[in-house]
Design brief:
The protein has 69 residues and is an all-alpha fold. The protein has one domain. The protein is 77% helix and 0% strand. The chain has helices at 4-12, 17-49, 56-66.
Length: 69
């Protein structure tokens, strides 16, 4: 059974090359943003575990600004 990603890639291969390139760029951008956010969350959790808590409003404002949320 194929994963959703495998199916999406299979269907994307049927698109014209220019559209595949655009789709690939967007997907890579999304993946990089996701990985950066995950890393930031891991750092924040380690800081909280170490008792280095920060004001939540400041943290969320910085994340919203950084990730255009």
């Amino acid at each position: 059974m194929m994963t959703k990603l495998e199916r999406a890639i299979q269907e994307a291969e049927q698109l014209p090359s220019e559209m595949r390139e655009q789709l690939g760029e967007k997907l890579l951008h999304y993946i990089h943003k996701y990985l950066a956010l995950r890393d930031d969350l891991d750092v924040g959790l380690r800081e909280l575990d170490a008792g280095e808590g920060r004001d939540g409003k400041d943290v969320f404002a910085a994340l919203k600004s950084r990730y255009d949320a």
